[in-house]
Amino acid sequence: MRLTLYLRGDIYWARGSDDGVKFRKSTKQTNQRKARLVADRWERELLDPDHFRSHQATVHSAAERWLREIKVAKKAETVRFYGVKIRHVQRLLGDVRLAKLTHDKVLGYIEKREAEGAHTHSIHRELTALRLTLKSAARAREFSRDPKTVIPIYRSGYEPLKDWVTAETIWAAIRQLQPFRGAAVAFAIATASDFSSIFTAERADIKRDFILVRGTKTSTRKREVPRIDVMAPFLDYAIEHSLPDGQMFFPWNKMSRDVRAACRRAKVPEFTARTLRRSAATWLVAAGVPYEVAAKFLGHGSTAMLQKVYGQLAPSDAARLINERLRAPIVPAVYPATASEPDKAGDTESQNTVKHGSNEVH
Q1: How many CA atoms lie within 13 A of 329 on its CB side?
Q2: Which domains does the chain have, with CATH numbers?
Q3: Contacts of 93 (CB under 8 A, 6+ apart)
Q4: Cα–Cα distance, 203 to 215 (Å, whole number)
């Protein structure tokens, strides 16, 4: 479709039609050659709207739309987590148009972040945020390439923590805290709650057979955690020392810092709020609870994270569980229980054979 230029006063205007609808639009140009360039761009946009969107959209605008998408999806934890990561991408790449985003530009981003002293794991997460942004842009028909052609392979070298603590260590720390603070720690271990879930707990969530945990990180984090015997003392302490009505615990922004300080006063290994989830998982797995059941208790959708990060078995626990399940021998003994006396007759025969063989040689 060819747009027609005409003068209206000193300004060139263009007229044409889009899907049968006639329109007129000012080029805001007094020079005919410049007006023709504007009209030619409009013609390309009308013929290929996807091409137009990709040349108009920037990394910044695409990232803002992606954050709106996950906010609408009610993924509050994801918004908070990736909101921080994507801001670095917007700061350094925000003005780049998606059509001009290249592998070299993203490599340059990585080099700048490393020069700023950013941890490799943080950079890896930022690239993940950029990848998700480009996928969102693809859904909006603003980006038609494979994100893999733009985002370099980048290894973070991150090793997730696998530490855990014993019940005795947790009780020692609780005794060093004010009871209403210790109650939050006790609730966290009793329900394997993450930080945000602790402080959204309400008294009405405590049922006779289970506790409703109001997790928000994933769809499986809001769950009914069964009341089990091993966690009963912690849950009883939490109920006794928490607020009597409504929300169970006051906000506690410095929980990990205060818990570590309590550990130092108690002279026990230091731990944080996140350590409590790993500890709960480890106790369950070490007791022989199947990974599938332990994963449900923690609110994981599968056993993958449990096997990789949580619930790490010590060799002694693994040996104990194996021995408990294999009490009857399943492999026949290879060696006799006691050493037997040599067979004298056989030994004499062997000696004669050797002697006879010696005579034959001569």
Answers
A1: 4
A2: 4-47 (no CATH), 59-149 (1.10.150), 167-322 (1.10.443.10)
A3: 59, 101, 105, 106, 109, 130
A4: 16
**191 three-class SS:** helix
Could you give the 3-state DSSP secondary structure of residue 214? strand
Q: Which residues of 93-109 are buried (b: 16+ CB within 10 A; e: fewer)?
A: bbebebbebeeeebeeb
Write the pLDDT tens digit of every residue in 105-149: 999 999 999 999 998 888 999 999 999 999 999 998 888 889 999
Is residue 211 helix, strand or coil? strand
> What would the two tokens of residue 114 be?
């490393």
Whole-angstrom distance between the N-terminal and C-terminal Cα of the chain? 113
247 DSSP assignment: B
- Tokens read off for 103: 């592998």
Strand ranges for the chain from DSSP E: 4-8, 11-18, 21-29, 210-214, 222-226
338 pLDDT more than 60? no
**Residue of 56, 125, 12, 81 whose CA lies nearest to 3:** 12
Helices 76-93 and 103-115: crossing angle in degrees, nearest 10, is 100
Task: Choose among 3, 7, 12, 1: nearest CA to 39.
Answer: 3
Angle formed at CA 223 by CA 279 and CA 308, multiple of 5 degrees: 40
Is the whole-model pTM more than 0.70? Answer: no
* Torsion of Cα atoms, 168 then 173 then 176 then 181, to 10°: -120
Residue 79: Cβ within 10 Å count: 17
* Contacts of residue 292, Cβ cutoff 8 Å, sequence gap at least 6: 303
Report the distance separating Cα 153 and Cα 359, nearest Å.
Answer: 77
- Least Cα distance to 227 among 213, 243, 248 occurs for 213
